[in-house]
Design brief:
245 residues; elongated; SIR2/SIRT2 'Small Domain'; 11 helices; three-stranded antiparallel β-sheet; six-stranded parallel β-sheet; alpha/beta
C-alpha cells in the first residue's frame, strides 16, 4: 500500500475529483456486480435489472430487489466513505461522482455528490408519477413483495437506473464537466467497464489531468494511471485522510 504516494498526488493536483463504483461499498457488506462472485455472476441483469424486465413483470423484479434494498438500508458507511467526506470538508476533494445507489456517500457526509445511476432514495409510480421516499417503500415491502401506489395501485419503480434506461442527463453532464476540470481523477472501486461513466478518465487525461486508481481488479486504464493501488479501499483512503488532514 502506498497511501503516502496517493496523498502526495491529491495534495499536488487540485482540484481532485473522485469516481466511485461498487468496490468502495463491499467493505460495508454490499456485494459488487461484475466480479466472479458478484451479483451478475448469479443473476442475469436482463432478467432482473432491465427496464424491459420491469415492464414485463414488475413483481418479479421486486422479488429480486426486496432483500437487496433491505441490505442497502441496513449498511453503514465504511472508512473509505468517511475518508472522502473528510477530504471534501478539508477542500482536498471537489466532488464525488458515484455509480452506486446505496446513499452511503451522503450518509458519510459527502455534500458535492453526483449520483449518475440515481439512488434508492425514492421510488416512483410509472403510471401516475407519484413519488415515495425510501422509508415508505421499505415499510410496504414488509407486507408485500412489490410496493403499490396509493393513487392508482400500479407497482412502484425504484428510482435507480435500469439497463436500457437513460442516465440522468444533468448528472452525466456534471460528471463530465468535473472530469475535464480535474487535475486528478481518483477512481475507487470501479472496473471502468460501464459506459458512459467509464469514459471519465479519458476526459481527465485529454484535458491534461492525472489519474489514480484504487481497485482490487484490473481496469482498462491501469497503464495510463499515475498510480494504481490494489488493496482495501477503506484502509488506503483512511491512511490518505490521516496524512492530509
Amino acid at each position: 500500500m502506498d497511501a503516502s504516494g496517493l496523498a502526495r498526488l491529491v495534495r499536488a493536483n487540485q482540484p481532485c475529483v473522485v469516481l466511485t463504483g461498487a468496490g468502495i461499498s463491499t467493505e460495508s457488506g454490499i456485494p459488487d456486480f461484475r466480479s466472479p462472485t458478484g451479483i451478475w455472476a448469479e443473476f442475469d441483469p436482463a432478467d432482473y435489472a432491465s427496464l424491459a424486465a420491469f415492464r414485463a413483470d414488475p413483481a418479479k423484479v421486486w422479488r429480486f430487489y426486496k432483500p437487496r434494498i433491505a441490505m442497502l438500508t441496513e449498511a453503514e458507511p465504511n472508512a473509505a466513505h468517511l475518508a472522502l467526506a473528510i477530504l471534501e470538508q478539508a477542500g482536498l476533494v471537489e466532488a464525488v461522482v458515484t455509480q452506486n445507489v446505496d446513499l452511503l456517500h451522503e450518509r458519510a457526509g459527502s455534500r458535492n455528490l453526483v449520483e449518475v445511476h440515481r439512488s434508492i432514495r425514492t421510488a416512483t409510480c410509472p403510471a401516475c408519477g407519484s413519488s415515495y421516499p425510501r422509508d415508505v417503500v421499505v415499510a410496504r415491502l414488509e407486507h408485500a413483495d412489490a410496493p403499490p401506489c396509493d393513487n392508482c395501485d400500479a407497482i412502484l419503480k425504484p428510482d435507480v437506473v435500469f439497463f436500457g434506461e437513460l442516465l440522468p442527463a444533468a448528472a452525466i453532464e456534471r460528471a463530465f464537466e468535473l472530469a475535464r476540470r480535474a487535475r486528478l481523477l481518483l477512481v475507487v472501486g470501479s472496473s471502468l467497464e460501464v459506459h458512459p461513466v467509464a469514459a471519465l478518465p479519458e476526459e481527465t487525461l485529454l484535458a491534461g489531468g492525472r489519474l489514480a486508481i484504487v481497485d482490487k481488479g484490473p481496469t482498462p486504464y491501469d497503464r495510463r494511471a499515475e498510480l494504481k493501488l490494489e488493496g482495501n479501499a477503506a484502509e488506503i483512503l483512511g491512511a490518505v485522510a490521516d496524512e492530509l488532514v
